[in-house]
Amino acid sequence: MPLKLSIKGMTIFHFQTALYRTNRTEPGPALCFESFNNSCEKFVYPSEIQILLYLFFSAIALTTVCGNLLVIIAIIHFKQLHTPTNYLILSLAVADLLIGGFVMPPSMIRSVETCWYLGDLFCKIHSSADFMLCITSLLHISFISIDRYYAVCHPLQYLNKITPPVITLMIVLSWGLAAFVGFAMIFLELNILGAKEYYSDNVACKGACVIFQTAAASTVSSFIAFGLPTIIAVSTYAKILTIARKQFKSIQHSTHVSQKTNTSVNKSEVKATKTLAIIMGVFFVSISPFFFCNLINPLLNHTIPLALFDVFLWIGYLNSLCNPFVYAFFYRWFRKALRIILLAKIFQANSSRLDLMVKDT
To answer: Which residues lie across from 3 on neighbouring strands?
Structure first.
């Protein structure tokens, strides 16, 4: 891009201040580091606004961590939830928890203070992890769509196709590929390939933690991190919808007994598919504005208002907070597991073998 941003982890104010190289002897705005000649400019919020922002961002991070931690505990503890789909949901919840616990707090400090005070090395680690976790989430959603395809469209082949080794491979690929792309791009400086001199002379300043990207790097990273997984997931769910409709029409012409049995199974799988499709939709809606701006801004000579990037960044973060609430709204098993966990009943004997699908009497 020459966009100065990380895939999910920059603030717009750092993006702005990274555009300037300021001499400390010149009068002007506050600086991130007064003792450095190449310090970034610092935007200073009123103290009341800073407190409100810290409270708001802290609430988002804490809710994200707690919500996804409950999902993780529920799936690990209850034997009934040890299914292929839920293992993918578990791994996705781990990614969301890391976003809330590791990515959001430094981003919060950077957003409020408008400077990066945690060192250059940690800036690279934080930005790499941010990018990695975004890709990880997208790959999980893509693999979940494949799992749903076999569950709904080929139920008789499901147990043979979606086996524990296959699920393990999906999870390993999601984390491994995302880590390679995320960390390689930043630590190998692929994002500034061919523009290192421009970056050094016009962008780099002390107190910024941003990822400068050329137009080529922005296009490639946006396609790998967003475009390709989106195509896979959307096309798969579209195929599921088409086949599910055909199956439903076929069931309607079957015998009464067969219809009753098949419909029961079909409704269970279709409901799970709809829930996961909603999760996918929420994710894409929340992060697509950021990626869209990231992609087109170089083509528009970087004229997109900078404030939009900060807004879209935190909208993207909110996706990690939303997923547990989607589970709670649509999944009876999660609501029941949540009550058991919060009431500390998981410490009772044989609590891991409780039937979460049966209504309480």
So the answer is: 213
pTM score, whole prediction: 0.81
pLDDT of residue 272: 64
Concatenating the DSSP letter of every residue in 273-304 gives HHHHHHHHHHHHHHHHHHHHHHHHTGGGTS-S
Find all residues with CB under 8 Å of 145, minimum gap 6, and list them. 232, 233, 236, 237, 240, 276, 280
**In the chain, what is the straight-line distance between the N-terminal and C-terminal CA atoms, in Å?**
58
Nearest-angstrom CA–CA distance, 129 and 126:
5
Contacts for 108 with CB less than 8 Å, ≥ 6 apart: 53, 54, 57, 58, 61
Average pLDDT, the chain: 80
Residues 7 and 214: beta-carbon distance below 8 Å: no
Q: What are the C-alpha distances in Å from 316 to residues 67, 200, 311?
A: 17, 29, 9
User: Domain 3-325 falls in which CATH fold?
Assistant: Rhopdopsin 7-helix transmembrane proteins (1.20.1070)
CB 40 within 8 A of CB 19: no
